[in-house]
């Protein structure tokens, strides 16, 4: 997959399982996410590249919301701090009646304080949106990876129908049911049988 870093970026990493996470590809302007494209299961590090693999899935609302929340608070903090530091080194008052405390524009102090406040908010947003998966959920994802190829629910896939049919056949064969449409579509009652309570079937 080829992306153009100057106006596209991955953001909104959620549901991290090892080297895998769900992320959304955004159009962006200098790091501010503008418009989401598609969501993907990303394997590897999008920041440093290298061995990066992606699998398209349905749009992830959680990833899109996380991308917007993290992107705008983080880049907002960086922009405010950068402008505040830049104004700090301007030798003349940028506007009339600037009191110029300690020989620097009061605007630089205000922007820097706002940037530090925005950085705290950004940190809280990152902490709130990076919810770790439980050990039980990670175990489920490991089983999904064996059947799906990536550690996500099969329903997350863009077109899960052929995979669902394959899983139904596996369940039917494990139950030793006779072949036929009735056995094929009766998979919910099959997986609930005590004698078939195996992790791969669940």
Notable characteristics:
alpha+beta, elongated
Report on the architecture of this protein:
With 202 residues, the chain is an alpha+beta fold. Helices cover 45% and strands 21% of the residues. It has six helices and four strands; from the N terminus they run E-E-E-E-H-H-H-H-H-H. The longest helix has 28 residues, at 61-88.
Question: What is the mean pLDDT?
Answer: 81
Main beta sheet: strand number and arrangement?
A: 4 strands, antiparallel
Radius of gyration equals: 25 Å
The portion of residues forming beta strands comes to 15-25%
SSE ordering:
EEEEHHHHHH
Form type:
elongated
How helix-rich are the residues, as a percent range? Answer: 40-55%
Q: Which helices and strands occur, and which strands form pairs?
A:
Blueprint: E1 8-17, E2 20-29, E3 32-45, E4 49-57, H1 61-88, H2 106-129, H3 135-148, H4 161-174, H5 181-185, H6 187-191
Antiparallel strand pairs: 1-2, 2-3, 3-4
Helix pairs in contact: 1-2
How do you describe this structure in short?
The protein has 202 residues and is α+β, with helices and mostly antiparallel strands. Helices cover 45% and strands 21% of the residues.
């Amino acid at each position: 997959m080829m992306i153009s870093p100057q106006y596209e970026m991955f953001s909104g990493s959620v549901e991290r399982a090892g080297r895998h996470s769900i992320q959304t590809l955004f159009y962006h302007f200098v790091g501010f996410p503008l418009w989401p494209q598609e969501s993907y299961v990303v394997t590897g590090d999008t920041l440093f590249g290298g061995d990066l693999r992606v699998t398209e899935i349905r749009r992830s609302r959680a990833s899109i919301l996380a991308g917007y929340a993290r992107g705008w608070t983080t880049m907002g903090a960086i922009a405010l701090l950068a402008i505040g530091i830049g104004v700090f080194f301007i030798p003349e008052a940028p506007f009339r009646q600037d009191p110029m405390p300690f020989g620097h524009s009061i605007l630089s102090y205000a922007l820097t304080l706002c940037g530090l406040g925005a950085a705290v908010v950004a940190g809280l947003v990152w902490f709130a949106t990076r919810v770790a998966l439980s050990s039980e959920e990670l175990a489920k994802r490991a089983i999904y990876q064996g059947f799906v190829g990536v550690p996500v629910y099969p329903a997350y896939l863009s077109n899960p129908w052929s995979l669902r049919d394959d899983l139904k056949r596996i369940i039917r064969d494990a139950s030793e049911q006779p072949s036929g449409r009735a056995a094929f579509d009766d998979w919910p009652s099959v997986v609930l049988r005590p004698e078939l309570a195996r992790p791969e079937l669940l």
